[in-house]
Amino acid sequence: MILRSAAMSSSSSRSALSALLRRNALGRRQRRRHLPAVPLPLPLPLVLRSHSSAAAASSGSAWQPRRLEERRDRPRDCDYDHDHDRDRRPPIADEPDYDTLGPTSRLNLFTAINSAMRTAMRTDPSAIVFGEDVGFGGVFRCSQDLLEEFGRDRVFNTPLSENGIAGMAVGYASAGGTAIAEIQFADYIFPAFDQIVNEMAKFRFRSGNQWNCGGVTLRTPCGAVGHGALYHSQSPEAYLAHTPGIVVVMPRGPRCAKGLLLSSIRSKDPVVFLEPKILYRSAVEEVPDADYEIPLGKAEIVRTGSDVTIVGWGAQLRTLQATCDLAAREGVSCELIDLRTILPWDSECVVSSVRKTGKLIVSHEAPLTCGFGAEVVATLQQECFFHLEAPIQRVCGYDTPFGLVFEQFYLPDEKKNLDAIRRVMDYSK
Amino acid sequence: MQATAVVNGREPMTVVARSFSVKNDYRAYSSMPPHHLARKNNGLVNGLVKSTKVPRPIVKSRNQLKERVTLVLPDKAKEGADEEQQSHLTYVGNESMPITTELKIVLPEDDVPRGTWPVFRMMDESGRFRRSDAAAPGNSDASTFNNLPEMYDLSQLRSSLISRHPHFAAEFESSELLRPSRNDYPDTRSTNTLLRAHRQMIRLRKMDTILHNAQRQGRISFYMTAHGEEAIHIGSGSALKRQDVILAQYREAGLLMWRGFTLEQFCNQCFSNDLDLGKGRQMPVHYGSRALNYQTISSPLGTQITQAVGAAYKFKLDALANPEKEAAIAIVYFGDGAASTVDFHSGCNFAATLKTPMIFFCRNNGYAISTPVKDQYAGDGIISRAPGYGMAGIRVDGNDVFAVHAAVAEARKLALRTSAPVMIEAMTYRSGHHSTSDDSSRYRDTDEVRRATDVSDPIVRLDRFLKGMGWMDDSAVASIEDEERVAVLRAMEGAEARPKPRLDAMFTDVYHEKPPHLVRQEEELRLHLKRHSIPYH
């Protein structure tokens, strides 16, 4: 798409076209770096955005993604935790009390991640941050200015190889260090799967607890971003969750992300930390400047309700929050749960909620079949069979690859979720 | 005889090999692992304790081997000092590689060797040290000792070797093999490093043979021998320091043995009993020991290579933070097959760009299960890739314990001095099967195996050296073999008699702390076992 629009703009120059074609012929990895260069107000690498702004401005945009407009109009603030019903939520063990954490700053997701890594590196001299393009700040700016503060030995670029990054992280952690590694996109985590599934996850078990690689945290941006198509939109949490031995975490916003990332980095188990890239810039919250940790393996009830339980994680929480508002207008009271940790997941929290509401909707961006929602549903029907008043609904991505122009139809948006709420409510009429 | 040699479309074998094919009567008693014989004898499986129609070659074959050795060697001995020493190492598929006596690690900035990379070798198959590349033929180097060093006196041996072979002076001077240890080795109760190396090579061979047979009898589920590669294990293990972490593939048990893993510990692992450090979770031969700084083996190939880079990076940062602390390297072992994996490429590239102090040690043993090296790569082995990564490298004769030791010691020094990786390719031969699930007689020529086991075998070579020096004779070697055989059998019986690990070990260590869902699943299982009265503890 970039290629075509840019070629149109440089109508006269044949050599410019051939230059572009050459660029296109550089190979998959080279191309994909230029791919997120569509000029939309999204969390894109700054350098890349400036790259092709001229070409994009003259592209005459025949493609109007309605979905993106909607997203842009949404309030930037995603302050879930100061909802009116905060006092009614059941307390979570070891959860930080934000009121006592001291001063806060307004941070978006990438700066919150940056703040967490900075805090971790200041408190742990063995902590290193590495990955592709990490040195200059990362394509999503998560590691910006870290090199200046901690030096080239602790913040560095690696060659372009995901399995190399994961393997190196495992080895560094096995020698007692804290490795904070970045896989540039979750879509490219698959070359590292051997290291994640066969090595990282089994390191402690296979050695009889002689060796471990608990110091590994593998950060990676995931999820839809408006124009990421097949290879910049995927959410691979279900693949990862099928692997005993690793912890899989996905935050829903900046404050949650900082606390979860600090816990992940300090966890004695290897963690894959999935960051919804749509939130990098669009989600802004008051984030404590202090060093705080959010317990892993604990879900959070983001909004209490009595009619339907809705479970989600990551950026989907924003959609679900909006859904809850729509449902409230129809008089339906929804209880919204953010799993936060996908593996090991907090089934207890969901079970007790569903025992109360009798209805459950699980929603995620990843494809329906064998998505992590399936796991939630299977457990819930077993634990809450006699409490259920309606069939459990899954509102998920379709079992297709993530088509570029079809993103708005692909995503499990508010309307699809609202329909699911109406369906389950119909049963109890 | 000639016909045998050209079977499989190969070139006629070397002179030595042909001299063997005459002696068909030895074939049935070859020193090949017993399973070969089992196949050749109507599929009868050779028993370790129970006798079958198949001859038991554990000890016998060794003696026969020695007879054959004496049959071959006289031809060479007759030529005596005038004998032209081997100029090329013949490798699988009749590839030949020039032999050098110069321990030269090719640095990234050096010119790459022309043609085939030479193989560094100190000791010839005859058990004599080579004369210098530069020396004229007929030099006295190849002759036997005139003044034998005092029995078992390593310091005397070292100085006499230095005076006899001045071109290896540096190698001998720095060789830990020729330096007595400060305290007695717990396993040999002596300070003699060279004799311990010799004994451990035999111990490893015995352990492999016996445990291999134990698998054939159904007593353990799986085994992998290191037949033919013992010099790599012991030669490199003795050149490393204890702070150096070892990331091995799965055929490097000798390194662990050198560091002090006992036969009991090996057997406990193979029998998955309650004393297995891995708590009965992994297949046999997946050893590991935190105490001995040897990371636990995992089956996937090559994954340890990128991990070694991470460990070495940690050591690099440690060295920067504490310059006075003894520096460490990471050493990673892998085979010629694993060098085709993505991890090999990533690991080499990462190590070279991130400048991590480590050694990439390739055991090029000719086969990845059944795939010969010609189907594995088209270039000059693995070492020729080192300059492409900007990495230093050296090729060494993996069956020469002295050469392996010297190369690893030198590479270790270089890795620490330059804070950079060094690649070593050790040319060896997997004389055993890939594993107990493999029968290599289906895909390779027995003459090829025979050549390896009789002529270039690392233990045979060291035996010849020690015998030439008068430190050993046939009966001394035989009694070491007997002692080790008995020790292995005793360790095996002890391990076999022990109970299996407790059921707890099934659910622990998946995570640092057992998460709620695993607590639930364990309860479920225990209830199930109780309900059906299935015994377990």
UniProtKB/TrEMBL annotation, chain A:
It catalyses: N(6)-[(R)-lipoyl]-L-lysyl-[protein] + 3-methyl-2-oxobutanoate + H(+) = N(6)-[(R)-S(8)-2-methylpropanoyldihydrolipoyl]-L-lysyl-[protein] + CO2. The keyword Heme does not apply. It comes from the Eukaryota. GO terms for molecular function: branched-chain 2-oxo acid dehydrogenase activity. SUPFAM superfamilies: Thiamin diphosphate-binding fold (THDP-binding) (SSF52518), TK C-terminal domain-like (SSF52922). Transmembrane segments: none annotated. Keywords: Oxidoreductase. Residues 66-92 have a biased composition (Basic and acidic residues). InterPro entries: THDP-binding, Transketo_C/PFOR_II, Transketolase-like_Pyr-bd, Transketolase_C. Its cofactor is thiamine diphosphate. Signal peptide: none annotated. The keyword Oxidoreductase applies. Its EC number is 1.2.4.4. Residues 57-100 are annotated as: Disordered. Residues 107-282 form the Transketolase-like pyrimidine-binding domain. This is 3-methyl-2-oxobutanoate dehydrogenase (2-methylpropanoyl-transferring). It comes from Stephanodiscus triporus.
TrEMBL record, chain B:
InterPro entries: Alpha-ketoacid_DH_E1_comp (IPR050771), DH_E1 (IPR001017), THDP-binding (IPR029061). The keyword Amino-acid biosynthesis does not apply. Its EC number is 1.2.4.4. Residues 430-449 are annotated as: Disordered. It holds the Pfam family E1_dh. Its cofactor is thiamine diphosphate. It is an enzyme of class 1 (oxidoreductase). Residues 435-449 have a biased composition (Basic and acidic residues). It catalyses: N(6)-[(R)-lipoyl]-L-lysyl-[protein] + 3-methyl-2-oxobutanoate + H(+) = N(6)-[(R)-S(8)-2-methylpropanoyldihydrolipoyl]-L-lysyl-[protein] + CO2. Coiled coil: none annotated. Residues 199-502 form the Dehydrogenase E1 component domain. One of its GO terms (molecular function) is branched-chain 2-oxo acid dehydrogenase activity. It comes from the Eukaryota. Signal peptide: none annotated. Keywords: Oxidoreductase, Thiamine pyrophosphate. Belongs to the BCKDHA family. The branched-chain alpha-keto dehydrogenase complex catalyzes the overall conversion of alpha-keto acids to acyl-CoA and CO(2). It contains multiple copies of three enzymatic components: branched-chain alpha-keto acid decarboxylase (E1), lipoamide acyltransferase (E2) and lipoamide dehydrogenase (E3). PANTHER family: 2-OXOISOVALERATE DEHYDROGENASE SUBUNIT ALPHA, MITOCHONDRIAL. This is 2-oxoisovalerate dehydrogenase subunit alpha. It comes from Stephanodiscus triporus.
